[in-house]
Design brief:
Layout lengths: L2 H17 L9 E2 L2 H13 L8 E5 L3 E3 L33 E3 L1 E4 L2 E4 H7 L5 H23 L22 H8 L4 E2 L9 E3 L9 H12 L11 E4 L27 E7 L2 E5 L8 E4 L4 E6 L4 E7 L4 E14 L5 E4 L2 E3 L10
Parallel strand pairs: 2-13, 7-16, 8-17, 9-11
Antiparallel strand pairs: 1-14, 3-4, 5-15, 6-15, 9-12, 10-11, 12-16, 13-15, 14-15
Protein name: Phage major capsid protein, P2 family
Amino acid sequence: MDSNTRRLFDAYCARVAQANGVSSAHTQFTVTPAVEQRLEAAIRQDSSFLQLINIQGVRDISGQAIGVGTTGTIAGRTDTSGSGVRTPREMHALNGESYICSQTDFDTAIRYATLDAWSSQPNFNALVSAQIVSQMAEDRIMIGWNGTSVAATTNRNTNPLLQDVNKGWLQRYRDDNPERVMDEGVTGSGIIKIGGTNPDFANLDALVYQAVHELIHPRMHGSPRLRVMLGIGMLDEKYFPLINTSNAPSEQNALDVLMSKKAVGGVQALLVPFMPLGTIKIGDPANLSIYYQRGARRRHIKDEPTKNRIENYESSNEAYVVENYEFGCVLENIQFGDGVQQGGGD
C-alpha cells in the first residue's frame, strides 16, 4: 500500500484499539460490549430480513431458548370477589428448547490495491467496516435457511451455502419438531406436487391453506403476524407483483425482503433471500432468532505483506433458534407439475 493508505490504515487500527480499550488491534482482543452492540446494530440495519427476526445477546454459551414474544394471549378475567387472584402472564418465559452457541469465524481480507483505491475517499474507515458488516449479514441469513450441521472444519467448496457452519431454522424443525415439516404429499411420490397429473395440491394457495390449519397452532390462525416466506425461485414477479417500490434511497441497501400485493393461501407472502429451492417457511418471522454470546466476540487485524493484503480475523459464538415450533411450519420438496405456471395468490 502507498504511504497515504498506510497512514489511513494505521489510524483506522488505532481507533479500533482505542474503542476496545487495548494497546493494539494487531493482537487478538475481546470486543467491548459497546462496540459489540454497535456492530450488531449495523449488521441488523444492513438487512431488512434481519430486522424482522430476533437477534439476541445471551450470557451463556448454552441454555434454554428465551421464547421472546411467543407466550401467546394475555387477555382474560378473574373474579376476585372470592379467593380468585389475578395472575399476570410472563411475556418472555423460557420455553424448554435448548441452544448451543458455536464459534463462527468471519475472517476477511482486503488487498492493498483496494485500500489504495479507497484512500482518496473521505469515508475510508466506513468503506473498510461496511464490507465486513454486509457479508456478515448475508452469511447469517444463508446459514439460517441452509445450515444443516456444525462441522469442526467447514468446507466452502462442498457447502457453498454454508450448510456446515451451523444448524439453521429449517434444520431445527427437521430435528426437533419433524411433525411440523411437510416434505411429501399424499401420493407418496417423495415430493409435494403442485398441479399437473395426479397432483397433491391444485395450487400453492391450497397447499399453504392446509399447512396453516393442520401444522400450526390455532392461536396463529388469522394472526396479522403470520407470513409465507419463500424464495424468488418459487414465484416470479409476473405472478407475484411486489409493493416495495417507494423505498427511500437510504433504505435500498437493506432491501432484501420483498412483500407481495397478493396473499398465498390467505397469508401475506414475503420473498426472502437464500431460501432453498422448493421450500416455504410459514410463521411469524419474529419467531426466528439468532443468539450470540455476549462478550465472546474476538478480533485481530493483521497486515500480511506476503499476500499484499490486510486480514481481519473475527469470531462470534452463535446459535440459530426457533422460539416456538407450534407457531410455524416448513414445507419442502415442492415441485410444479408439467405445464403449471408458478404463482398463486387469492
